[in-house]
Amino acid sequence: MISFLIYKAILVGVIFAITLFVAAYSTYAERKVAAFLQDRIGPDRAGPFGILQPLADGLKFIMKEEIIPNVSNRLLFILGPSIAMLTALMAGVVIPWGGSLTIGGESYSLQIVDLNIGILYVFAVVSIGVYGIMIGGWASNNKFSLLGAIRASAQMISYEIGMGLSIIALIMMTGTLSLREITELQAGGAGNYWNMWNVVYQPVGFVIFLVCAFAECNRTPFDLPECETELVGGYHTEYSSMKLGFYLFAEYINMFVSSAVISTLYFGGYNFPFMNNLGLDQNLITIIGTGVLFFKIGFFIFFFMWIRWTIPRFRYDQLMNLGWKILIPLAVINIFITGLFGIF
Amino acid sequence: MLTNRSKLVVKKEMTFWEKIYLPAILSGIAITIRHLFRKGATVRYPEKKREISEVWRGQHVLKRDEKGAERCTACGLCAVACPAEAITMVAAERKKGEENLYREEKYAATYEINMLRCIFCGLCEEACPKEAIFLTDRIVSTDYGRGEFVYGKDKLVEPVDQRIDVSKRQTPEVLQFKKLKQFSHNK
Predict the structure, then answer these.
(1) Using an 8 Å Cβ cutoff, are A267 and A196 in contact?
(2) Beta strands of chain B (E only): which ranges?
(3) Cβ–Cβ of B32/A40 closer than 8 Å?
(4) Which residues of A touch B30 (CB under 8 A)?
(5) Does domain B60-179 have CATH number 3.30.70.3270?
(6) Interface residue A302 vs chain B (CB under 8 A)
(7) How far apart are CA A162 and CA B106, in angstroms?
(8) pLDDT at B113
(9) What CA–CA distances, in Å, run from A220 to A214, A217, A311?
(10) A36-50, A245-259, A263-277, B134-148: range with lowest mean pLDDT
């Protein structure tokens, strides 16, 4: 029992550290990708190739003067970024980061908790994330912040519906809500027996989920809550120092987690083609699988950035049209078609 | 219609393929990914300097003569010629015993060029009858305040032991040109 707790504590710590590390270097990657896509060089002064830039940015955030406006609601003002950060970190708990390692006869699963309602848990936690933005924007007592917060809440709640419906088709197919079981069902791929990733069976569901994930993370083309051209800084206009850092950081953590969820649900998670045909040791397969999962996550984080520097921002009515009039009906049709395939 | 590039705008209903936007988005991300592999035009300046012309017009120098005395006599022709009004000076009379410092009886006690005003046209150099001021291939460095860009004699006059070579700008043709005052604006 004690060893179990110690093991879980270590795993939580490691995943926490990895999440923060990936989020920190996502900020660096964002600037580098932006630069390369625009034929520039990007940050290259802090360390070789600017590799220490996230450290410099973090230090700057901590050293900056912290301003809490007099007219703001002090408690809620502090609570906002805390909730945003907390919920962003919580979603990583149910994601299976790899298979299981066998050390000394004991099996260690590379997942913190295998909840049997794993995907519902992710949705629950992500929808709490709206409160962080809403409370922060409301407590700032600033018109622009409030507008950003209203936009954020309306947008995230609208797109959660489309996201949930797109998942239902997938769940009908797999018959389970546990993320580990969904991953295991995609095991193998090409090899002994033909078993494809879910994206092959659910292409429409995948596109809907991807678009909704962009909206949930407030990423371009859905970055209306913080569009600097209209709303100064959106919901975090009044924030400074590390509180602003928390908001920005939470966005990158959300991006990391949603990339992990997309990889797990539609791209086979830690599975890779020919995994059972090469005659590798089970532990080695697990380690390679974790690497493969992180490669997939890295690709999707890059994809988030790639889209950001390609597509301009939606107008607000276009955003709502897309969410309610296109994605939701499309998701419902997808559910029907999946149901028909299930019957016949 | 003058440039032949105007396009007739037709506001027609979008087809189904245009309406779902995905093909357009895919072609968009294909364009952006091509830029990822393109070589940028950036020159990393302090480490790598772009090649410049031999007669580059950069930071000015106030020359000394062979004996090390300042050539400038504070005649003010450069300041008059300057289209950006960047040059100011205060003239003073040479005292006894200063013959090794200043070549003629009058000299510039202060001589200032505001590098933020200067447009590096080289008209001061052309106007100078004493071959005292030249533009060099040095680049005016950056600074934090505006005050630091007003260069005084401490920065402009060349040190006696570190002469600055202006032979590229002081060719026989240039000297010939300067003799023919009818070509010059200060005739």
Answers:
(1) no
(2) 60-62, 87-93, 106-114, 133-135, 150-151
(3) no
(4) none
(5) yes
(6) no
(7) 86
(8) 92
(9) 7, 9, 7
(10) A263-277
